[in-house]
Q: What sequence folds into this?
């Protein structure tokens, strides 16, 4: 993908590629804040993938380990 393409725009290609590579076995993907919003969620859901957006702490001043959910 070109650098000027937003993450949410690439969701369809990424989700479809993931499902092809895994035989449609992926149901959940942890993503960064670039995939926030209904457009990204709906596009991924069309491929059978739910997105869980992991947000960094707002007051990040040093290295912070973001816990798994």
A:
């Amino acid at each position: 993908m070109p650098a000027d393409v937003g993450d949410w725009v690439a969701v369809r290609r990424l989700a479809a590629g993931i499902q092809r590579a895994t035989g449609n076995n992926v149901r959940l993907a942890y993503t960064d804040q670039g995939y926030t919003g209904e457009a990204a969620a709906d596009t991924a859901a069309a491929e059978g993938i739910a997105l869980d957006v992991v947000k960094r702490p707002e007051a990040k001043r040093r290295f912070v380990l973001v816990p798994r959910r």
About this structure: The two ends are 29 Å apart (CA to CA). The mean pLDDT is 83. DSSP finds two helices and two strands in the chain. The beta strands are 28-31, 50-53.
